[in-house]
Amino acid sequence: MNVLREIGMLPGEVENFGRRIVIRTMEVTRARRAGLLHLHVKLNEDVAQGQKVASIVSPFGEVLEEIMARHAGPVVRIATLPIVSSGERVIQIGIRR
What we know:
Oligomer: single chain
Order of helices and strands: HEEEEEEEE
Radius of gyration: 18 Å
Number of strands: 8
């Protein structure tokens, strides 16, 4: 409906839904180790460069890998399964334009 309001085919004002951001590209971060995934951020959350975004632990609780954000930006994609394999995408961060 917003498109039709914007081009004048329907009466009324265009409604804004949530925040809008423009990203130039997306940076994929993959797991180097397999194990249980513990996420420290949520989808659509802004992260800082170097911030810890996830940890991969063994079934015995040993931390195998800590994953840090390589860039600052919003989290645009995130793994949802609790188990990851080596090389699997864990998080994708948008790089603002």
